Structure formats: structure tokens, C-alpha cells
Amino acid sequence: MPIPTIENYRNLPVNPDRKEGGIEVSAKLYKQSTKDKPLVSIFTVVFNSATTLEQTILSVLGQTYQNIQYIIIDGGSTDGTLEIIKKYEEQIDYWVSEPDSGIYDAMNKGISLCEGVLIGIINAGDNYMKDAIENICNIYKDNKDEIILVGNCQEYFSDYSGWVILSGNLTKLPYKMVPHPSVFVPLSIYETYGGFDTKFQIASDYDFILRCYLQKVQFFHINKVLATASARGFSSNYYLTEIEYLKVRFKYGLLNIKSFMLSFFSLTKVTLHLMLERIKLWQLIEKSRNKSVR
After folding, report:
1. 87 lies in a domain?
2. Is 196 in contact with 9 (CB distance < 8 Å)?
């Protein structure tokens, strides 16, 4: 299956059951980039996340940077999510609610709707720091080349009070993923290298980043916390993540001992985590990791 292109998504027929709203629909107002204030498009993908969406919306609307197009892509929620979206629709540029084929299908749709020169993706439950977009734009405006900007992300533990910093250090590439809530990608790069591969359930963001990395796209690390991420938890999805990461590395020819060892180490680590959690010892480890950087 070929990588989906943004142009493909722009040309898809409109779903007759689509619900939509926002400033672009009600007032036909569309923001534009200026030399001093490039337009940044931020979108949130959501499905049945009524308990977490509002804080995410507020983190975008409360940014110190003023030229932001904010879009919400809802997968047809039935739990009150739409009511929260409509509560803020006079401040949201565009929202759409319709069934989709999963998170990466929704993300590709979101990219196709963006008008900004730079795109950030913040999913329901994650939040931006107040000056995140301003920090990003200050770096972006000073670079003549199109670059992918990566910041740090603060992630909270699932069951214990504490957090760790997920570094956006680029030495993680190409074998590990950088924190996706703190990644900002120029629209032109999505148009050139394609969107998210929908055959993956969890690792398509890594697939995209690795694709760009191997195509010699430039990356820039901003050593600041730009976003906070809700606790991901440890479940069978973690095993699937590592398996998919390994498949992505294979896809791009990273067939070596390091690739296998990283996956083996990660799978062993999560297995040990689950075992220690059952006997109530994991809390001690979490306390020792509190406020650490990894």
C-alpha cells in the first residue's frame, strides 16, 4: 500500500453525514501567514474523549502566539465530546465530526485541512505549554530551510504522582521515536514526503519521522518542554508498539543487531514492569524516576 499523500486526502469526496462548524464555516474567516507572524496550524484528533478534551482545547486557545489555525478532527463521538467542541466553536477555526478509519486516517485528514506553514498535532489528553508555539515560531522564522522542530515533553505517570521529561534529543534517531506532542512539521514536508501510513496502528508517527530522517530532512531540537502528555499506561498496546517499531525499521532497511536488541530490551522491560506492578513494587521505581529525563 503506497504512503497516503496529502493531495489524495484533499480530493476525497465529502461524507454526506459530516457535521462541521467553527469560524471558517460560520463566518467564512480564514487566517493567513504574514512575514512576522507565520500561520501555525494545530489540530486535535479525538474520539469519545469528553473527560480530557476541554483542557487540550484551552491549552491551544491560551497560547501567547496569536496567529494559530485550530482544527479538531472528531471520529463521530457519542459521549459528549461534540458538546465540548461546540462550547468553543466561536474560537475554533474548524471542526469536523464523522467516522474515520483510525487515528492515522484522522491525522491525514487533519493535515489536508491545514492552511498554516507549520503544523502541530496535539491529541485529546495532551496539552501545550503556554508559550510553546511562540518558542517554535521564534526558531522557525530564523531558519531559511524547512526543518522539523522537536521539543521536550513532560509525561505524567499513570498511577503515581510524578512525571518524567521525554527528551526530544535527536540522537534517539533513527532507532527511537522523539515525543510526538512536541513535534512541529512544515506543511511543505508533508506535501513532499507524504502523510501517515495507515497500515500501522500505533507506530505510523515513527514511520513518518524515520522516513523524513532517511530522506535527509533537517531536524532541530529545542531543549524546552513544549507539551505535557497524559499517562499512556502499560498494556498489550506497548507490545504492539515495539513490534510495529521493529517492522518500521525493517521497512527502511535497518536490519542489524542494534535494532533487534532495542526491541528485545524494550519488550523485556515492559514485561518486568508488569510483573513488578502485580506485586506492588513498581511504585518504588516510579518514585526514583520522578522528574528525571529520558
Report:
1. yes
2. no
Residue 273 lies in a domain: no
DSSP characters over 15-81: PTT-EEESHHHHT-------SSS--EEEEEEESS-TTTHHHHHHHHHT-S---EEEEEEE----SSH
Q: Is residue 243 part of a domain?
A: no
Cα angle, residue 183 at apex, residues 178 and 187 outer, rounded to 5° = 135
Q: For residue 288, what pLDDT is reported?
A: 63
Residue 283 lies in a domain: no
Task: Output the pTM of the full model.
Answer: 0.91
Domain housing 186: 6-232
- What does the DSSP 8-state code read for residue 120? E
Q: Write the CA distances from 178 to 99, 119, 199, 206, 291, integer angstroms.
A: 29, 16, 20, 8, 18
- Residue 15 corresponds to which amino acid? N
Q: What is the mean pLDDT of residues 86-102?
A: 96
Backbone angles phi, psi at 237, to 5 degrees: -65, -30
Would you state the pLDDT for residue 279?
73
What CATH number did the domain enclosing 38 receive?
A: 3.90.550.10
Cα of 246 vs its chain's centroid, Å: 20
Count the domains in the chain. 1
